[in-house]
Write a structure and sequence with these properties.
The complex is a heterodimer of chains A (about 290) and B (about 220).
Chain A: H1 2-6, H2 8-21, H3 23-59, E1 62-67, H4 73-84, E2 89-95, H5 97-108, E3 126-131, H6 136-144, E4 149-153, H7 156-198, H8 200-208, H9 213-251, H10 262-291
Antiparallel strand pairs in A: 1-3, 1-4, 2-3
Chain B: E1 2-10, E2 16-25, E3 30-34, H1 41-48, E4 56-61, E5 64-65, H2 71-79, E6 81-84, H3 96-102, H4 111-124, H5 140-153, E7 158-162, H6 170-182, E8 189-194, E9 207-212, E10 215-220
Parallel strand pairs in B: 3-8, 3-9, 6-7, 7-8
Antiparallel strand pairs in B: 1-2, 1-4, 4-5, 9-10
Helix pairs in contact in B: 3-4, 3-5, 4-5
The chains are: A alpha+beta (about 290), B alpha/beta (about 220).
Chain lengths: ~290, ~220
């Protein structure tokens, strides 16, 4: 360790020499690692964003319960209270005809003037219940048993679709992480082996003079880490730029989707990619060194 | 320093490179190993450096038993040896100074002393003016001197030089031998292989060993200085 610290300048110079010996291969390895990590970064972003959306929807999960029109206000209040007592229901409150109308006005925005062509308020009052999404089946079963309820509208289908997409992205994410891990390890171990082959005479000389294996191998460790962490930095920069672009695009047409804050997403992504690149670089270097030991 | 008892070396293809070697080298001794090409001179030096292992017999070099499975001990042993290789084994693309410094970088020599030691060693071999020249720009004789400087700068207790006079004319070869001998002192032993017997005949203070088809013949023990 002491020798490694004393010889920092020598190791940096050696690493530059090793890279120069196979310059084209090193440049191509750097670029391919950068692109592989960029694909991974985008996959992880998709994974995180979809998880965030699912979580947000789960937290906001609610059902609308429509009751018989001939039920009076006191009856509706009692019904809301009964629904509020069902296990898995966080809150149940009455939404009047007027509130339903005003909500629709907000949703329609400029198009809300179509409502003016209607003679009467066409909306019915209903009970809005915030629920624990995992308990939805049980809640629906219990609502079926309560008298006076005409029908229940839930967003289970939408939520299940999003959950399905999220699961698919998750599986794809695992596959891509595996692919990135294998390809990075193969690229780095191969480039290290090439460097060792080119320097074999120098390595043999150092061994004959009693140099420790750590001293001989350190410039190759630096080369591998430089390539993977350089690739990681390149992919992080590309991913940060791509996220900025995608968020700008999403701001207009799908503004209602609850995306996580871009800065937080980008900084977590950069940290993860740099950590992964350093870890996979280390694994690749040690594969390369151990396979070229003799 | 070196104790060999009944040492044999047989290569995997069945070639018997060394047969029943008996040898003792003491501190301060200069040993010439002579003999034609293929007689076993280089194989003997490889054994001393732990680059090969005896297939029979017992060999101790600088207190270390030379046998398989002793990698870290062999590494330690090599750090105490100053090797001058037949083909120099200098690192291309580096200066003479960098090559000499490289031989010391992994030893327990304070970092501040490495450059100073390398400079002094190059001065001693007469290459003060060519310290910063790339080794590929040096002549054969100059490369030989850089290799010697690299070996001695490590402050070894044993210098092993394999054919240091090869491909040199008589004057240059004599100069190289004189240079190597100049590093001999009471604590340091020097082993030199050569087939230029005419250059060493007069050195009566050195031990002369002849190798012949893997057999070792003591030609002349060295006289006391």
């Amino acid at each position: 360790m002491k020798n490694i610290l004393y010889n920092t300048g020598y190791f940096i110079k050696e690493t530059k020499t090793i890279i120069r010996l196979n310059l084209l291969s090193n440049i191509l390895s750097f670029l391919s690692i950068g692109l592989i990590f960029f694909i991974l970064a985008m996959m992880i972003s998709g994974w995180w964003v979809s998880s965030h959306i699912v979580l947000a929807i789960q937290e906001e999960a609610e059902i609308s319960i429509y009751y018989s029109e001939d039920m009076d206000a006191a009856g509706a209040d009692r019904l809301a209270e009964e629904i509020g007592n069902i296990e898995g229901v966080h809150e149940a409150r009455l939404v009047s005809k007027e509130e339903a109308y005003s909500r629709m006005e907000k949703i329609l925005g400029k198009e809300a003037r179509v409502l003016e062509y209607l003679d009467d308020n066409p909306f019915n009052p209903f009970i809005e219940a915030k629920i624990q999404i995992e308990d939805i089946s049980l809640i629906l079963e219990k609502l079926d048993l309560i008298e006076g309820i005409e029908h229940v509208r839930d967003n289970r289908e939408v939520l299940e679709r999003i959950l399905g997409i999220s699961q698919t992205i998750k599986v794809l994410g695992y596959l891509i992480i595996t692919a990135v891990g294998i390809s990075t390890t193969v690229i780095i171990s191969h480039i290290i082996r090439m460097g060792i082959y080119d320097c074999r005479e120098q390595i043999n000389t150092l061994r004959l003079m009693g140099a420790p294996e750590a001293f001989i191998g350190f410039p190759f460790i630096l080369e591998g880490l430089l390539l993977t962490m350089g690739g990681g930095a390149l992919s992080s920069a590309l991913a940060a730029y791509a996220l900025k672009y995608l968020y700008t695009q999403a701001a207009g047409p799908i503004a209602f989707i609850p995306l996580p804050p871009r800065e937080a997403l980008a900084s977590s992504l950069v940290m993860l990619i740099m950590f992964l690149s350093a870890s996979l670089g280390t694994v690749g270097v040690f594969f390369g060194l151990s396979s070229a030991k003799n | 320093m070196i104790e060999a008892k009944g040492v044999c070396l047989e290569y995997p293809d069945g070639t018997m490179a060394l047969k029943n070697i008996e040898l003792s080298v003491k501190p301060g001794e200069l040993v010439y190993v002579i003999g034609p090409s293929g007689s076993g001179k280089t194989s003997l030096l490889k054994l001393f450096m732990g680059a090969e292992y005896p297939t029979a017999g017992s060999l101790r070099v600088l207190g270390q038993h030379i046998s398989k499975g002793q990698a870290s001990r062999i590494r330690g042993l090599r750090r105490m040896i100053g090797p001058v290789f037949q083909d120099f084994r200098l690192i291309k693309g580096r200066t003479a100074l960098e090559n000499v410094m490289l031989g010391m970088r992994f030893l327990d020599i304070p970092s501040g002393c490495i450059r100073e030691n390398a400079g002094n060693a190059l001065k001693k071999v007469g290459l003060e003016q060519k310290m910063l020249s790339l080794v590929e720009h040096l002549s054969w004789g100059e490369c030989q001197r850089v290799a010697i400087a690299r070996a001695v700068s490590r402050e070894p207790v044993l210098i092993i030089a394999d054919e240091p006079t090869g491909n040199l004319d008589k004057d240059n070869a004599l100069n190289i031998l004189e240079l190597l001998k100049s590093f001999r002192d009471d604590n340091k032993a020097i082993i030199i292989t050569t087939h230029a017997t005419h250059l060493i005949e007069d050195d009566r203070y050195a031990v002369h060993i002849r190798m012949d088809n893997g057999n070792m013949i003591m030609e002349r023990p060295g006289e006391l200085r």
